[in-house]
Design a protein that fits this description.
Helix content: 40-55%
Distance between the termini: 10 Å
Order of helices and strands: HHHHHH
Structural class: mainly alpha
Radius of gyration: 20 Å
Shape: flat
Number of helices: 6
Number of strands: 0
Length: 179
């Protein structure tokens, strides 16, 4: 049984190493204006599997790091998935200030096809620049129908849905036999 786990661990590490080596050899490893290195995204589930090998002492650390990563990714996706490379710390200098204040910094160059909007969420208002979706409703979340365009409270339905799904999954798995 232990050998099977070792083989799984080696396979996961090999997959992660291949993706990292590919990303390091790529000319645009930083992925330009995207939130993260796009060719690293496929290894995220494998990194999650690696957490299963963590000892029980490390599990609270993984939960904390996972919560921080979730908050950062939700904030980035909610505000704007295109972040100028002019920001040295995009989370502290752009994403969270915009999410909390609704003020869009104008000191950076925007890509010509994405004029910045205003408000707390969905700063990139032209995700689909084809009528009738162009303009303020080109990029939105369903909570904006309730709370209004750009209101950070519009993220509450998303958080509620995720919490409900997590509770459901927890209840489904808590009585499973441990291996």
């Amino acid at each position: 049984r232990r050998r099977v786990h070792r083989n799984e661990l080696l396979a996961i590490l090999a997959i992660v190493a291949v993706f990292l080596a590919f990303n390091l050899s790529f000319v645009d490893w930083h992925a330009g204006w995207s939130v993260g290195p796009r060719y690293i995204i496929p290894i995220i589930p494998f990194l999650g599997l690696l957490m299963l090998y963590a000892t029980s002492i490390m599990r609270p650390l993984w939960v904390l790091l996972g919560a921080i990563a979730f908050a950062n990714n939700l904030a980035a996706v909610a505000v704007n998935h295109l972040i100028s490379i002019d920001y040295k710390n995009p989370l502290a200098d752009y994403i969270y200030p915009v999410l909390l204040s609704g003020v869009v910094p104008r000191f950076v160059e925007w890509p010509p096809h994405v004029p910045p909007g205003s408000g707390h969420v969905a700063i990139n208002t032209e995700s689909v620049a084809v009528p009738p979706l162009a303009g303020p409703w080109g990029s939105f979340n369903l909570g904006e129908f309730v709370f209004g365009v750009g209101d950070p409270r519009s993220l509450l339905p998303i958080l509620f849905w995720l919490a409900l799904g997590s509770l459901f999954l927890y209840r489904q798995t808590r009585n499973l036999p441990s291996q």
